[in-house]
């Protein structure tokens, strides 16, 4: 589904055993919460991109989380005009592969929390959130994609 009109990307969902998910607050839009996400680099698989983006944006790696599952198809959405105008000409939005990570069961909550480090460029803070609540708090133009992906990704 990714192609000239849609930027190929990944989304990393980290879920605790109680069902809450790790969310990050955007630096450029205070009050807007979302999952770690980013583009797939040339010569990189979507799985590799998910691990890389998770590490870059949160500081988490295989010492803290494990890959549980992923969606095998792409979830797409279009950017609003103000976002589209800042992208490569002809780009309409993103096509994303979604990945579900679980917190390492051997880590206590405090140790895990100490390992989370928002990157400071894109994200300023983090919190645990109910997935349904996040769909209501993510920027409006991502809500449909988040709802569709979470309905399929989370059991």
Structure, explained:
By secondary structure, the protein is an alpha+beta fold. It has a single domain, classed as Nucleoside Triphosphate Pyrophosphohydrolase, CATH 3.90.79.10. Helices cover 27% and strands 32% of the residues. The chain is built from 5 helices and 8 strands.
Q: What is this structure, in a nutshell?
A:
The protein has 155 residues and is α+β, with helices and mostly antiparallel strands. The chain is 27% helix and 32% strand.
Summarize the SSE layout with pairings:
Blueprint: E1 6-15, E2 21-26, E3 33-34, E4 37-39, H1 46-58, E5 65-70, E6 75-78, H2 81-84, E7 93-103, H3 109-115, E8 123-129, H4 131-137, H5 143-153
Parallel strand pairs: 1-7
Antiparallel strand pairs: 1-4, 2-3, 2-8, 5-7, 6-7
Second-tier CATH architecture: Alpha-Beta Complex
CATH superfamily: Nucleoside Triphosphate Pyrophosphohydrolase
What's the overall geometry?
globular
* Number of structural domains: 1
The helix/strand order is: EEEEHEEHEHEHH
CATH topology: Nucleoside Triphosphate Pyrophosphohydrolase
- Helix % is 25-40%
Total of DSSP H or I helical runs spanning 4+ residues: 5
Look at the helices and sheets and give the structural class: alpha+beta
CATH class: Alpha Beta
The termini sit apart by 24 Å
Main β-sheet, in a few words?
Answer: 5 strands, mixed
What's the Cα radius of gyration?
Answer: 15 Å
Low-confidence stretches: none
Share of β-strand residues: 25-35%
Please give the number of β-strands: 8
Q: Residue-averaged pLDDT, rounded?
A: 92
